[in-house]
Amino acid sequence: MPARSAETRRTLAKRQRQVWHMRVVRKLEVSEIAELVGVSETTVKRDLAAVRLRGRSLLRKTQEAQAAVLDAGLEACAEFDATTRQAWADCLAAPEGSPARARFLNIVLKSIEQRVKMLQSLGLLEKVPEEVLLGDLDLRRLSDSEAESALAFLRACAARAGNQAGGAAGDTAESEAVDRDEPVDSG
Questions:
Q1: What are phi and psi of 122, to 5 degrees?
Q2: Is the residue at 102 inside a domain?
C-alpha cells in the first residue's frame, strides 16, 4: 500500500474527527453520517473504528506515562529517604553543638525540601503557599544553640501574647484552637 501524502493524512484525520463528532455528539446514525459526509457507510464505520483504536492507544500511552512518572517519583523518594536517614544518623552521632551536627541537620532539611519540590514538579504533591520568613533569619543555617535561642525567643513572644490575652488560660485556649484549626478569640 503506497504511503499517504501529508495532505491526504490531514484530510483523512479531519474527516474522521467530523464523523466521530456526528456519531458521538450529534447522535446520528451511520447512514445519516455517510449521506452528510458523502462517503459510504463502510467508510464511516472504518473511520469510527480508526478513531476508537487511536483513542485506546492514546489512553494506554497516557496510563504508561502516568505509571512512569509515579515510578520515577517513588524511586527519587527512596533516594531522598536514604539520604535523610543517613544524615539524621550522622547528626545524632555528632557531638552536641558541633558544626558537623549543624551540617547534617542542614542536609536533612535540604533533602526534605528537594523531595517536596520533586513531588510538586511531578504533580504528585500539591503546592503550598510561599515559605514564611522571619526577617532575614534562615533557620536552615543555624547551629543547634542558635536554633534553640531563636525558638526560646519565639516561645517568649508567644508567652507574652498569651499573658496579654488572659494568662495561662489564654495559652491553653490558643493551643487548643490551633490544634483544631479554629480562630482564637482574643477579646
A1: -85, -5
A2: no
